[in-house]
Amino acid sequence: xxxxxxxxxxxLADNIATAFRDGPGFAVDVCHDGEEALxxxxxxxxxxxxxxxxxxxxxxxxxxxxxxxxxxxxxILILTxxxxxxxxxxxxxxxxxxxxxxxxxLGELLARARALIRRGxxxxxxxxxxxxxxxxxADQTVSVEGKGIDLSPTEYRVxxxxxHHPSRIVSSRELLEHLYDFTWEHHSNVxxxxxxNLRRKLRSTTQQTVxxxxxxxxxxxxxSPENDPTGxx
Length: 233
Description:
The chain is about 40% helix and about 20% strand. By secondary structure, the chain is of the alpha/beta class. The protein has two domains: about 120 residues, Response regulator (Rossmann fold), CATH 3.40.50.2300; about 100 residues, Orthogonal Bundle (Arc Repressor Mutant, subunit A). It has a five-stranded parallel sheet with strand order 2-1-3-4-5, sandwiched between helices. Strands 6-7-8-9 form a four-stranded antiparallel sheet, with helices on one face. A two-stranded antiparallel ribbon has the order 10-11.
């Protein structure tokens, strides 16, 4: 999951980003004004936007309205110092999915963020299946042929992304951009290790579905790789 935090109070923005990274393990991008927020939104796909109203250059409310003219799906959680009922109604009518008034508890922020992502604008997050693998996003568990498998947080996120794109080749860069923030280059030497560990754990449970490594192209989930002629290993 990837989150954009738009907050001009630098310490607060850093605290929110750290909470998302250390808690649910989300990739987080941070910016401090509305102009940069719109640029990042246009160039990057996000699963959630946390947006402060009182930001420079382009007001938070205008950022919200601009995004909603393009996108009615991405959840947006507003941070505001305003608690007056009329103002919060205006926020919701402008397209906000939820709001929190400052000061707020980071634990509650994470809980609300998870609920927004899970709800997906009223749609439940479905259980994912591929071959004998079942992945339940709601509680972040993975089972193979009904038996639970213990994955690290990063291994889980790799598998989740691959299961959202079944049988499609996913490049290392695409995985890295999903798993990490704009500093993903610093992690480029670890993705192969995570893939290797994930493949080993899956193969220890079943031979029917594995993560294929297609040299120079990327990775994918596929059945019966020994019968695939594309040069995977």
